Amino acid sequence: MTLAYGVFNEGGRARVGARDGDRLLDLAALAAAGRLDAVPDAERVFSAAALNPLMALGPDAWRACHQRARELLADEAPTVPFESAEALMPFEVADYVDFYSSLHHATNVGLMFRPDQEPLLPNWRRLPVGYHGRAGTVVPSGTPVVRPRGQRWVPGDEAPSYGPSLALDIELEAGFVVGQPSELGEPVPIERALDHLFGMVLVNDWSARDVQAWEYRPLGPFLAKSFATSVSRWVVPLEELEDLRVPNEPQEPEPLPYLREEPWAYDIPLEVTLNGDVIARSNTRHLYWSVAQQLAHLTCNGASLRTGDLLATGTISGPEREQRGCLLELSWNGQEPIELASGGTRAYLEDGDEIVLSGDPLHEVVGRIEPARG
Amino acid sequence: MTLAYGVFNEGGRARVGARDGDRLLDLAALAAAGRLDAVPDAERVFSAAALNPLMALGPDAWRACHQRARELLADEAPTVPFESAEALMPFEVADYVDFYSSLHHATNVGLMFRPDQEPLLPNWRRLPVGYHGRAGTVVPSGTPVVRPRGQRWVPGDEAPSYGPSLALDIELEAGFVVGQPSELGEPVPIERALDHLFGMVLVNDWSARDVQAWEYRPLGPFLAKSFATSVSRWVVPLEELEDLRVPNEPQEPEPLPYLREEPWAYDIPLEVTLNGDVIARSNTRHLYWSVAQQLAHLTCNGASLRTGDLLATGTISGPEREQRGCLLELSWNGQEPIELASGGTRAYLEDGDEIVLSGDPLHEVVGRIEPARG
Q1: Which residues lie below 8 Å from residue A347, measured CB to CB, with a gap of 6+?
Q2: Among partner residues B126, B162, B187, which is closest to A300 by beta-carbon distance?
Q3: What is the distance between the alpha carbons of residues A212 and A316, in angstroms, rounded to a whole number?
């Protein structure tokens, strides 16, 4: 069992909770009862409608909080029945950055879209490629996803048109939430990167591939991804994931000093189901760049971090076909639709499809596709 | 003279102000004195440390507010001496989106970077190309800009390296601030776009061209622009700019229906000075896509707007050489350094350089380059 934090609503009031499996603590009530005095300013922090005040306290306070929450969970402190507690969006997103840190994903995309060139662009092994996404449309697990409309050029048509995406996709990702902010103008050294990260979630970076293919040059993905990005409702603190850190293969070429560290990754098995059928199994071990490298790169120009920044990994694909983390790769851009165990095939998502991302001890991300509106 | 809103600090307390030239009203004090009762919830709205509560009220309340502020300014209501009022960042940025809406800018960039191809990519005349920038590093005019370090491949070197940008640039832009939010899943029709926009600022989207050239494929600009983006400290409400709307040339090809309107632009002359020498003169008339088209496109996939979203135009360049809005174009990527009237030349910015963007009735954006740190 693993500690996780979230925000839940019971009787119309939002407050911070901690859970371990199906035991859920009301930290606001426990703080009011004086049982969380190890955490600075506990009453304010735990009666907030987001984890941001807790996350802003920094790593010393987080350690104290985790320790106390574990004691209270072990101690048979009063718990809240899950039936009456609705989990909400756990944190307010400041900036959302999405990286592109899986070698197999980047290679597959290159093979599909630039078949006459080296699949990996020359910068890929030198720095963690990334871009900014839309923070305002990050939604909690379970939020229905309306099939987006958008401008795309349908093969065979004489001109681009505006209509429902015909290539709606998932992206299996993990995300890291910034707790402790940093100063503008001051890069965070790689060895201090993890001090700024509060915890980890799963992320489904929904993508309209037809919109993306048409819009993305030269400034990158925009509306193809900005309609919705789903995250877990419970955030697992990084301290809980220490034992899952494993050595990773050496990076070649060796990164520049500001990105240099002993190669490592989290060993967290991941699974994607579509209407209950497993369609992909991957693992966070398949990431080439670590989150410490991502954070050091993100701030190497002096950009500041804010509490609530979300750093996602990009699609996590492994070397095998069944380890590919999106339908673009699984169906090879629709040319090889996948067979579903329960019958039928999929190139891209259909209306009504329900996708679940899971990866114990992280918390799941669920999303169901609703038809385009209008 | 033109009404503008901002936030200022006097005696340690931030509050909302309205100004016309050098007459500055303390709207918090006037609300407390019952002189702004035309505005809903005036005491709360004007004692905030950001314009966001005012902006969230929507267009009916804005109209009432502008009307009342003009009366109070004309009426010789008590004003605050500028010497004792420090203007702050005027609004909290939700998401920051930067477009690429000047035909001449996009054409020049294409000519430089893809000399063997059509300078405009095929999507450019079909949709307002844009991308998300970093909201957390938008800073108010006057904030010093530290020369960013970053990873770039210096010509002649065997490998990329990490160090101070050798091609630090400006971008002359305008920006529009969202007031009224919109619902997730509900595109804003183009004819309602302006109802969501509170006001306009100037924007300097500082850019490290060497970092950009190395990092930007395939996901777009990232660290090349995320170290700082400067905006005016005073926001001019769109209502004040109505008389500056002028017809624009027909767009060819005709845009899709969701982007279709009578072509128009704001006629606002713009100027860039470097250490006091004018280095560029442009005009918001040179924008191909209107802000209404940008906003309709941004939401056409169902992405929601939040109060505080900033929509910038991208570099505003005209057809003539002296109308180019960035040094990349003015010096043709450093190959033709510009001559400064007061002596010396510039390919890109040097430490100590001070850049001022101005464009009456918008408020200026000033920034001075400090040497790289560390």
Answers
A1: A167, A327, A331, A334, A337, A338
A2: B162
A3: 19
A-chain residues within 8 Å CB-CB of B187?
149, 374
- In chain A, what are the helix, strand and coil shares in percent, each to the nearest 5? 25, 30, 45
Nearest residue to A372 (alpha-carbon basis) of B304, B193, B190, B186: B186
Q: How far apart are CA A27 and CA A33, in angstroms?
A: 10
Distances in whole angstroms, Cα of residue A161 to Cα of each of A152, A277, B192, B261:
6, 34, 21, 17
**Chain mean pLDDT for chain B:** 97
Phi-psi category of B234—alpha, beta or left, where left has phi over 0 and alpha has psi -120 to 50? beta
Task: With beta carbons less than 8 A apart as the criterion, state whether A39 and A45 touch.
Answer: yes
Is residue B234's pLDDT more than 90?
yes
Hey, is the C-beta of A256 within 8 angstroms of any chain B C-beta? Answer: yes
Q: State yes or no: is A105 an active-site residue.
A: yes
Strand A310-312 to A172-178 pairing:
antiparallel
pLDDT, residue A1, reads 75
Instruction: For residue B163, give both structure tokens.
Output: 């160090």
Q: What is the DSSP string of B275-340?
A: TTEEEEEEEGGGBSS-HHHHHHHHHTTSPPP-TT-EEE------SSGGG-SSHHHHTTTTTSPEEP
Cis peptide, bond prior to residue B119, ω within 30 of zero: no
Instruction: Give the span between the Cα atoms of B190 and B183, in whole angstroms.
Output: 15
- pLDDT of B1 over the 80 cut: no
- Residues 180 to 239 of A: which have CB under 8 A from any B CB? 184-187, 208, 211, 214-224, 226-228
Length of chain A: 374
Q: Is A255 on the interface with B (CB under 8 A)?
A: no
Helices and strands, counts by H and E, chain B: 8, 25
β-strands A3-10, A13-20: how paired?
A: antiparallel
Question: pTM score > 0.90 for this model?
Answer: yes
**Cα separation, B55 vs B40, whole angstroms:** 12
In single-letter form, the type of residue at position B336 comes to: E
Burial of B78 (0-12, 13-18, 19+ CB in 10 A): exposed
Cβ–Cβ below 8 Å for A309 and B220: no
In DSSP terms, which residues pair with A140 in a beta bridge? A231
Beta bridge partners of residue B278, listed in sequence order: B273
Token pair listed for B323: 């109308």
Q: What confidence tier does B73 reach under pLDDT thresholds 50, 70, 90?
A: very high
Calpha distance B251→B34 (Å, rounded): 49
* Interval B200-227 mean pLDDT: 97
Best residue of A132, A145, A306 to probe chain B, by most B CBs closer than 10 Å: A132
Would you state the structure tokens that stand for residue B2, as one six-digit string?
Answer: 């033109």
Between the alpha carbon of residue A70 and those of residues A85, A255, B137, the distances in Å are 20, 38, 37
CB neighbour class for B227 (10 Å; exposed up to 12, middle 13-18, buried from 19): buried
The DSSP output letter for B102 is B
Token pair recorded at residue B30:
């006037």
Token pair belonging to B200 = 């306009």
Q: Name residue A366's beta-bridge partners.
A: A356
